[in-house]
Structures are given as C-alpha cells and as structure tokens.
Design a protein that fits this description.
It contains 13 helices and 5 strands. It is an alpha+beta fold and 279 residues long. The chain is elongated.
Length: 279
C-alpha cells in the first residue's frame, strides 16, 4: 500500500497525533488515578471543542465528511495548534483562503533568471510549489556545486537535503535544518500531499531516508521564517547567511530564495573570494 495518503487520512493522522500530545492538565482536567490513554480522550476533545463525539470520531477515522471552518477552528483551539498547524488543517479540509495553485511550473522565466543573476555574490535559487529547483545564480552554484549536475528529476530541495552528503556537510546543523525544511514543506503542501508531484517525492524519500520517515510520521508543521543560517563550505570555511524567501506576484507558484551575508561578519568577503576561486 502506498505510504502517501489522502487529505482525509492525513487529517485523521494529524488529529490523533495532536490529541495524544496534549496533556489533560493543560486543558484544565484534574487527574484522578492512572490513565491508559496518552494525551486527551476523544470525549474530552468533543466536550471542550463543542463538536459532537460522533463527528470528531469520524474525522479521526478519515470518513468522507466535510467539517465546517468553525469546527476546525474549535478543534485548533482545543488541541492547542500553532498558527502553522491551524492553517495546515484548514488546507486539509478545503478552507484555505489562498488561491489554488496552477499547474506545476517547469522553468524559470527569463526575467526571473536575470533577477537571480543581478544578486551578484549572494546565493539565490528559485523553487516551484513542490520545491523543485528550476533556476539558480552563479553564487548559489559556488555554494552548492552539485546543483548543476543533479538530474532534473532529483533537483528538488527537500530531496537534496535528505539524500546528498554534500548538503549534509554544508549545513552546520543538519539535524535541525533538515527537520525545519520538512515541517515547512508539509505545511505548504497541505492537502496537495496526495497529488502526483508531491506523492512521488514523499514516497521516494520515505524509501531512502530514515530521518525523513521519522520526521514525516511526527506530523509537525511550521511556517517559513527568515533567519540566520550557518554553513560550512569546504573552500572558504564558515558562512553566516540570512535566509529570505520571496514570491513573485506575477508567478505565485514560484519562490525565490536568497542568502545574504549576516551583518558584522566576514561572510560577504568569503562569498566574493569563493566567486573568484570558481570564476
């Protein structure tokens, strides 16, 4: 049986996982005696969210029902979901306010490539909504040379993070960074995880990467946030880069990812040296 599941089954797994991680004390339930059920019981979720027990049970069973936005908002409060997790379940149940994504973008428009090239020494690349890398500048190739030689079918950011030993060595804290990439990918994928472009990627990663299997089974989700990222480059040593992501308004299926030098570091100088070394 395929490891990739439908949106309803994904929601069911996610709700069960969240329910088991909520302690009774955190929602005001006084414990008396030993509980065999980890986290909350279904009955307790039902009472505190105002959702009928039957309806909630059906959600956890992946039944073919359509919960309202109000139901999902109430469950998000009871299960103490983060904003990213709340948005995730809304997407799974068809309540996202974002416009539907168009067909997978297969190439970066010429003006997009010119934008990447104009960034000079700062590494930048473009990804589609399933994180396929469709363009990059010379500075990014200097940072990650394998991008140019990777076959098109494997030139996917999530795939490379979990399968390329060069990336594992390049990321100073691979364990934290890879988990962060996974949770962001899952949040953005939402109900699209069962579509071919996502399903094939997820299934292949589950086949080859134990860290990915563990992370995917956790059902953790999170939003992207700009932050400093630390890299260890074999040519110039440590680089401290600020990680940014932009969405072109004329092509929302694409995201442009840019790394700029962190202030008060020698990173900009090292990026310039790296450019000359590989020029």
């Amino acid at each position: 049986m395929s490891a990739v599941v439908s949106a309803k089954a994904e929601l069911a797994d996610f709700l069960r996982t969240r329910r088991r991680h909520i302690t009774p004390e955190s929602v005001g339930i006084a414990l008396s005696g030993q509980r065999r059920t980890p986290g909350l019981r279904r009955e307790e979720v039902s009472v505190r969210s105002g959702v009928s027990l039957t309806w909630y049970t059906w959600l956890e069973q992946g039944r073919d029902i359509k919960p309202s936005r109000q139901v999902m908002d109430a469950l998000a409060r009871t299960l103490q979901m983060s904003p990213a997790e709340h948005e995730y379940v809304l997407r799974l149940t068809g309540h996202s306010t974002e416009p539907a994504l168009s067909q997978l973008t297969v190439r970066l428009p010429p003006h997009g490539q010119r934008l990447l090239d104009a960034l000079g020494i700062f590494p930048a690349y473009a990804i589609t909504h399933n994180w396929s890398i469709v363009g990059w500048n010379r500075a990014y190739e200097n940072l990650y040379p394998n991008v140019a030689s990777t076959p098109l079918g494997q030139r996917n950011l999530l795939w490379l993070v979990f399968t390329d030993p060069y990336v594992r060595d390049l990321l100073a804290d691979w364990t934290t960074d890879s988990r962060r990439f996974l949770t962001q990918f899952r949040a953005e994928a939402g109900s699209r995880v069962h579509e071919p472009a996502f399903a094939d990627l997820i299934e292949r990663l589950q086949d080859v990467s134990e860290p990915f299997r563990r992370g995917w089974a956790s059902h953790d989700v999170d939003h992207f946030t700009s932050r400093e990222r630390r890299f260890h480059h074999p040519g110039v040593g440590e680089l401290l880069l600020e990680h940014h992501r932009l969405a072109p308004s004329d092509n929302p299926d694409l995201h442009v990812v840019v790394y700029t030098a962190a202030p008060e570091t020698d990173t900009a100088h090292k990026l310039a040296v790296l450019g000359r070394q590989r020029g």
